[in-house]
Design goal:
The protein is globular, with a radius of gyration of 17 Å. It is α/β, with parallel strands linked by helices and 187 residues long. It has a domain of 128 residues: Rossmann fold (3-Layer(aba) Sandwich), CATH 3.40.50.2020. The strands form two sheets. It has a six-stranded mixed beta sheet. Strands 1-2-10-9 form a four-stranded antiparallel beta sheet. 25% of the residues lie in helices and 34% in strands. The protein binds inosinic acid and magnesium ion (MG). The site of inosinic acid has 16 residues, from strand 6, helix 3 and strand 9.
Amino acid sequence: MTTNQLKIKPLFSEEEIRERVTALAKQISGDMQDPNNLTAICVLNGAFIFAADLIRAINPGGFAVDFIRASSYLGEHSTGTVCVSCDLKQDIRGRDILLIEDILDTGHTLSALIRHFQDCGARTVKTAVLLDKPSRRVADITADYRCFEIPDDFVVGYGLDYNEQFRGLPYIGIVQTKTEQKNGVID
Ligand code: IMP
Ligand code: MG
């Protein structure tokens, strides 16, 4: 797909995503101790499609769902500062949290959100990510559940954006700039 200067090179098809999300949901369902005490929390905006599919595939479905918005900034010394700009609507004291995020990149966002939920009194916090870029990691964190590991490429689709574009693509693809196309960085 090409939009203006950008070309998107498909990475994971709709079918591959569906298979992995279904498998992950099965794993999560199997590990779940107390579904009635679970709150699934989707990190907006990027995780909204992944969360919608994952939540519907997890059985049993009798758990609470909430949303949070977080942005991460890199400070002068490359320490990520994460701003939670839209907090939870529900009380999570004593709850088991399943935190659903699009990409685990440097890890600053997830680390900060885990600390935030612990400060709010959550009993346990587990993380489910669509994509994991381990080569970019700065914070000491691994996801409890993940669909795919990817290299250090910028990806879009299935909820993920590039300047708010491409969230609605049903597949996940790598963004290729015009310069990269010319230089043959990605074919
Ligand atoms: P970090 O783990 O704190 O560095 O932040 C991860 C966040 O950066 C994700 O939630 C995404 O919003 C964003 N992000 C990182 N890599 C990509 C990408 O390849 N495409 C789209 N968003 C990305
Ligand atoms: Mg995000």
